[in-house]
């Protein structure tokens, strides 16, 4: 039997379309904000520009996000911070070696974040974080700390299983973070980090960096535990 919503849509298609549009608005605003924050930076982006790009009024934007700061926080959670539950579930379910897990982690990071516009949020925070300490702390809480915690779990898994040599995990995670940060700077800085005569394949670069890290972590054959 058709639902009441079905009859409402048939009777008043304009109202039904308006309601569906209203439901989609937060996502449209977040997408527009991500585009502008990455293109112009946080300070230079104006709320009315975000609203215009999303096709709504400035007042409508503030119905969903009371300030530009809250809008930025929502963009960070939507594109980065909110994904750690999924990534931790993948960690729990992974059945291969820890070396393969680390390779997978770096490759998937590029596919899901590094090659997308969301990677520009990291460059933005690196360049503007000192001017907006509250946002910088929010970014550390939602992105940096969960990311480092996940990397610690990966490295500690390898150590506990005897696959990796015992290392200072708190510092070893930066050996994994560094090539990711480099790629984000390369992508969002007109690629000036690389000689224009040299072609950089991000996937090959990360695969090479993963092997470099792993050869430094893997316990040599026959070495004492």
Helix content class: over 70%
In sequence order, what are the helices and strands, one letter per element? HHHHHHHHHHH
**Tally of domains:** 2
| Cα-based radius of gyration, to the nearest Å | 22 Å
Oligomer: single chain
Q: What is the CATH C level class of the largest domain, in words? A: Mainly Alpha
Biggest pleated-sheet summary: none
**What is the number of strand segments?**
0
CATH superfamily of the largest domain: Tetracycline Repressor, domain 2
Domain HTH tetR-type: 23-83
DNA-binding region: 46-65
Pfam families: TetR_C_11, TetR_N
GO molecular function: DNA-binding transcription factor activity; transcription cis-regulatory region binding
Overview of this structure, please?
This protein has 225 residues and is mainly alpha-helical. It folds into two domains: 4-71, Homeodomain-like (Arc Repressor Mutant, subunit A); 80-217, Orthogonal Bundle (Tetracycline Repressor, domain 2), CATH 1.10.357. The chain contains eleven helices and no strands. The protein has helices at 4-11, 13-40, 47-54, 58-64, 68-79, 84-93, 98-114, 120-128, 133-160, 169-188, 202-217. Helix 7 runs antiparallel to helix 11. The longest helix has 28 residues, at 13-40. It is elongated and about 65 Å long.
């Amino acid at each position: 039997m058709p639902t009441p919503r079905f009859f409402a849509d048939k009777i008043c298609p304009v109202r039904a379309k308006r309601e569906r549009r209203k439901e989609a608005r937060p996502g449209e605003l977040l997408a527009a904000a991500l585009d502008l924050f990455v293109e112009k930076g946080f300070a230079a982006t104006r709320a009315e520009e975000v609203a215009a790009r999303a096709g709504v009024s400035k007042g409508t934007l503030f119905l969903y996000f009371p300030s530009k700061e809250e809008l930025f926080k929502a963009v960070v959670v939507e594109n980065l911070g909110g994904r750690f539950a999924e990534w931790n579930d993948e960690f729990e379910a992974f059945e291969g070696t820890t070396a393969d897990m680390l390779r997978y982690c770096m490759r998937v990071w590029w596919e899901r974040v590094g090659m997308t516009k969301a990677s520009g949020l990291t460059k933005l925070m690196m360049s503007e974080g000192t001017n907006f300490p509250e946002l910088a702390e929010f970014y550390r809480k939602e992105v940096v700390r969960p990311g480092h915690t996940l990397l610690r779990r990966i490295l500690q898994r390898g150590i506990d299983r005897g696959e990796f040599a015992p290392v200072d995990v708190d510092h070893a995670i930066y050996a994994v973070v560094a090539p990711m940060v480099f790629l984000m700077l390369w992508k969002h800085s007109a690629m000036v980090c690389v000689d224009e005569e040299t072609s950089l394949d991000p996937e090959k670069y990360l695969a090479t960096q993963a092997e470099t890290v792993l050869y430094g972590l893997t316990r040599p054959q026959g070495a004492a535990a």
